[in-house]
C-alpha cells in the first residue's frame, strides 16, 4: 500500500499543475478576446507545442495498457511507430496547411466554409460526444487500476485530478494547458524510467529481459498475416493505426488547436516532427516496460493467480512489488499515470470549450469579445465537471485501451473521411458531405456495437501463454494457450461474422465509406443540378 512519501509526490504533481494555471491567469490578465484564451494568442513556439502534442494523447492508457498488452499479446504493437510516421507526414502536408492558412480557431469552421452550416454543426456535435466519452474513460480507468493495487482512494483521486485539471484550464487557457503538458510529460517519462531501471537492475541487465521475452514468444514482430479479423498484426497496427492516429492529429480539435497556436507554419510543422520523436520514444519505453513485466512474472502470472483482477492492474502491481522499498517511487509512478490523464483531459476540456464558443455561440449570438472570453472560461468549467461525471459512467465500461480506440475509430473515422473529402475532392458538395458522414457513422456504429456483443474468438486475438507454476499459492492453476492449425482457423473464420473485424479497422471503414459515398452523391447531385440548369 502506498505510503506518506508517495502521497506527497502525487500532491506535488497536482500542485505544480495548478500553479502553472495561476501563473498564466496572472501573466495573461490583459487578454481581451476569447481566441487569446483558446489559442494562446498564436504566439507559441515549436518545442512546448510538440511536447504538449505528445502528452495529449499519451494518456494513462499508454502507461497502464501498453505494457499489459505486450505482456499478454507480445511486442508487435511496436509497429504503431510506422503509423505515427505516416500520420505526421499526412498531417503536416495535407491538413496543417489548410487549417493554418485559414487562421481558424475551430476545425469545424472549415466545414462551413467548404460545405454548409449543417455539416459544421453535425461535425461539432459528433466531436463533443466523442470527446466527453473518451475523457470519462481516461479519468476513471487509471483511478480504478491504481486503487485496486495501491489502495489509493478511488473517487478521491478521480475528483482531485478532475478538479485540478478544470482549475488550471479555466484559469490559464491554452498556454496553461501546453505548459502543464510539458511538465506532465516529464513526470510520465520519469515514472516509466523508474520502473524500467529497477526491473533491469533486478533481472540482471537488458539482455536477460530480451531473452526471456524471446523464449516466451513476446517478440512476435514477423506477423504479416493479412487477415483483417486478426486483432493485432503488422497490417492492422500500421494501416488501421494510421487511420486512428490521422483522425487524432489531422482533424481532432485538441491537436489542431495546438499546432495552429504556433507563431508560423514552419514552427507548426516542426512541432509535429519533434512530437513524432516523443511518440516513438514513449512507445519504445512502454513496449520495453511490457517486456520487463513479462521477465519478472514469467513463472508466476499475477493475473491468472488472482493477485490482480484485470490486466490493466499488472503495471501498478509490478511497481508495488519492485519499488516498495524505495519511498516516493511508487508515488512517482502513480503521478505518471495521473499525469497521463491530466494532459489528455486538459486538452479535451480546452478543445470542447473552443468548439462550443466558436461553433455554437459565436455564429448565433452577438456577444462582445469580452463576454465570449468569459463564456470560454465558463464552458471550460462546465465541461470539466461534465467529464468528472462521465468518469462515473465509464466505471461501467470494459477493457480500456480497446474502448478508447474504438470510440476514436467509430466517430473519428467518419469525421476524418468528411475532412478528407473536402480537402482532396474539389467537386464534393454539402449533400455528398452530409450523406457520406452519416453513412460512415452508421456503418462504424454497427460494426463497433456488434463487436461489443460478439467479441472475436481467442484464435483472432492470440493471447500468449502465461503460467503460475512458479507461484507459491494454493490456488495456482495453469493457463496456457495453444496454437491452432490453419484448418481450425478457417472453420472459425467461416463460422464468425464480420463483427470480429480488428477494432483498429473501425476508423478505416468509417473514413472510406464517408469518402466513397460523399464522392458518389456529390457526382450524382452535381450532375443532376447541371442537367436541370442546362
Automatic annotation (TrEMBL):
<dbReference type="Pfam" id="PF00474">
    <property type="entry name" value="SSF"/>
</dbReference>
<feature type="transmembrane region" description="Helical">
    <location>
        <begin position="272"/>
        <end position="297"/>
    </location>
</feature>
<dbReference type="InterPro" id="IPR038377">
    <property type="entry name" value="Na/Glc_symporter_sf"/>
</dbReference>
<keyword id="KW-0915">Sodium</keyword>
<feature type="transmembrane region" description="Helical">
    <location>
        <begin position="154"/>
        <end position="171"/>
    </location>
</feature>
<keyword id="KW-0406">Ion transport</keyword>
<keyword id="KW-1133">Transmembrane helix</keyword>
<keyword id="KW-0472">Membrane</keyword>
<comment type="similarity">
    <text>Belongs to the sodium:solute symporter (SSF) (TC 2.A.21) family.</text>
</comment>
<keyword id="KW-0739">Sodium transport</keyword>
<dbReference type="GO" id="GO:0015730">
    <property type="term" value="P:propanoate transmembrane transport"/>
</dbReference>
<keyword id="KW-1003">Cell membrane</keyword>
<dbReference type="InterPro" id="IPR051163">
    <property type="entry name" value="Sodium:Solute_Symporter_SSF"/>
</dbReference>
<feature type="transmembrane region" description="Helical">
    <location>
        <begin position="121"/>
        <end position="142"/>
    </location>
</feature>
<feature type="transmembrane region" description="Helical">
    <location>
        <begin position="6"/>
        <end position="26"/>
    </location>
</feature>
<protein>
    <submittedName>
        <fullName>Solute carrier family 5 member 8</fullName>
    </submittedName>
</protein>
<feature type="transmembrane region" description="Helical">
    <location>
        <begin position="46"/>
        <end position="65"/>
    </location>
</feature>
<feature type="transmembrane region" description="Helical">
    <location>
        <begin position="332"/>
        <end position="357"/>
    </location>
</feature>
<dbReference type="GO" id="GO:0070062">
    <property type="term" value="C:extracellular exosome"/>
</dbReference>
<feature type="transmembrane region" description="Helical">
    <location>
        <begin position="503"/>
        <end position="524"/>
    </location>
</feature>
<keyword id="KW-0813">Transport</keyword>
<feature type="transmembrane region" description="Helical">
    <location>
        <begin position="77"/>
        <end position="100"/>
    </location>
</feature>
<dbReference type="InterPro" id="IPR001734">
    <property type="entry name" value="Na/solute_symporter"/>
</dbReference>
<feature type="transmembrane region" description="Helical">
    <location>
        <begin position="378"/>
        <end position="397"/>
    </location>
</feature>
<dbReference type="GO" id="GO:0005886">
    <property type="term" value="C:plasma membrane"/>
</dbReference>
<feature type="transmembrane region" description="Helical">
    <location>
        <begin position="432"/>
        <end position="454"/>
    </location>
</feature>
<dbReference type="GO" id="GO:0005343">
    <property type="term" value="F:organic acid:sodium symporter activity"/>
</dbReference>
<feature type="transmembrane region" description="Helical">
    <location>
        <begin position="403"/>
        <end position="425"/>
    </location>
</feature>
<feature type="transmembrane region" description="Helical">
    <location>
        <begin position="232"/>
        <end position="251"/>
    </location>
</feature>
<keyword id="KW-0812">Transmembrane</keyword>
Amino acid at each position: 500500500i502506498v505510503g506518506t512519501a508517495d502521497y506527497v509526490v502525487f500532491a506535488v504533481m497536482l500542485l505544480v499543475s495548478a500553479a502553472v494555471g495561476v501563473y498564466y491567469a496572472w501573466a495573461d490578465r490583459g487578454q481581451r478576446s476569447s481566441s487569446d484564451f483558446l489559442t494562446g494568442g498564436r504566439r507559441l513556439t515549436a518545442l512546448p507545442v510538440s511536447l504538449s502534442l505528445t502528452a495529449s494523447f499519451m494518456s494513462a492508457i499508454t502507461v497502464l495498457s501498453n505494457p499489459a498488452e505486450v505482456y499478454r499479446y507480445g511486442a508487435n504493437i511496436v509497429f504503431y511507430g510506422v503509423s505515427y510516421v505516416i500520420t505526421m507526414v499526412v498531417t503536416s502536408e495535407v491538413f496543417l496547411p489548410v487549417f493554418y492558412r485559414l487562421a481558424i480557431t475551430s476545425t469545424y469552421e472549415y466545414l462551413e466554409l467548404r460545405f454548409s452550416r449543417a455539416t459544421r454543426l453535425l461535425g461539432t456535435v459528433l466531436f463533443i460526444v466523442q470527446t466527453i466519452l473518451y475523457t470519462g474513460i481516461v479519468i476513471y480507468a487509471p483511478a480504478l487500476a491504481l486503487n485496486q493495487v495501491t489502495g489509493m482512494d478511488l473517487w478521491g483521486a478521480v475528483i482531485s485530478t478532475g478538479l485540478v485539471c478544470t482549475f488550471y484550464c479555466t484559469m490559464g487557457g491554452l498556454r496553461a494547458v501546453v505548459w502543464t503538458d510539458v511538465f506532465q510529460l516529464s513526470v510520465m517519462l520519469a515514472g516509466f524510467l523508474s520502473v524500467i531501471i529497477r526491473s533491469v537492475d533486478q533481472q540482471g541487465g537488458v539482455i536477460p529481459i530480451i531473452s526471456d521475452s524471446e523464449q516466451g514468444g513476446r517478440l512476435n514482430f514477423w506477423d504479416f498475416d493479412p487477415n483483417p479479423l486478426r486483432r493485432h498484426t503488422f497490417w492492422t497496427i500500421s494501416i488501421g493505426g494510421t487511420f486512428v492516429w490521422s483522425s487524432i492529429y489531422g482533424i481532432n480539435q485538441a491537436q489542431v488547436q495546438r499546432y495552429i497556436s504556433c507563431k508560423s507554419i514552419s514552427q507548426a510543422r516542426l512541432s509535429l516532427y519533434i512530437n513524432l520523436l516523443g511518440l516513438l520514444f514513449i512507445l519504445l519505453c512502454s513496449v520495453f516496460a511490457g517486456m520487463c513485466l513479462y521477465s519478472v512474472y514469467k513463472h508466476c502470472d499475477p493475473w491468472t493467480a488472482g493477485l490482480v483482477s484485470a490486466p490493466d492492474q499488472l503495471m501498478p502491481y509490478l511497481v508495488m512489488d519492485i519499488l516498495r522499498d524505495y519511498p516516493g517511487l511508487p508515488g512517482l509512478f502513480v503521478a505518471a499515470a495521473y499525469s497521463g490523464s491530466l494532459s489528455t483531459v486538459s486538452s479535451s476540456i480546452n478543445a470542447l470549450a473552443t468548439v462550443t464558443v466558436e461553433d455554437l455561440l459565436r455564429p448565433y449570438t452577438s456577444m462582445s469579445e469580452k463576454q465570449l472570453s468569459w463564456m470560454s472560461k465558463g464552458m471550460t468549467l462546465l465541461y470539466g465537471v461534465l467529464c468528472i461525471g462521465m468518469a462515473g459512467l465509464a466505471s461501467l465500461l470494459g477493457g480500456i485501451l480497446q474502448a478508447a480506440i474504438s470510440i476514436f475509430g467509430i466517430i473519428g473515422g467518419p469525421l476524418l473521411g468528411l475532412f478528407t473529402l473536402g480537402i482532396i475532392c474539389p467537386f464534393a458538395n454539402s449533400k455528398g458531405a452530409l450523406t457520406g458522414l452519416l453513412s460512415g457513422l452508421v456503418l462504424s456504429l454497427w460494426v463497433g456495437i456488434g463487436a461489443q456483443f460478439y467479441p472475436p474468438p481467442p484464435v483472432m486475438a492470440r493471447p500468449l501463454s502465461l503460467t503460475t507454476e512458479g507461484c507459491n499459492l494454493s490456488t495456482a492453476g495453469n493457463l496456457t494457450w495453444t496454437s491452432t492449425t490453419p484448418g481450425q482457423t478457417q472453420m472459425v473464420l467461416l463460422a464468425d461474422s464480420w463483427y470480429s473485424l480488428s477494432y483498429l479497422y473501425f476508423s478505416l471503414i468509417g473514413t472510406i465509406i464517408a469518402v466513397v459515398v460523399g464522392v458518389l452523391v456529390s457526382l450524382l447531385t452535381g450532375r443532376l443540378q447541371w442537367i436541370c440548369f442546362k
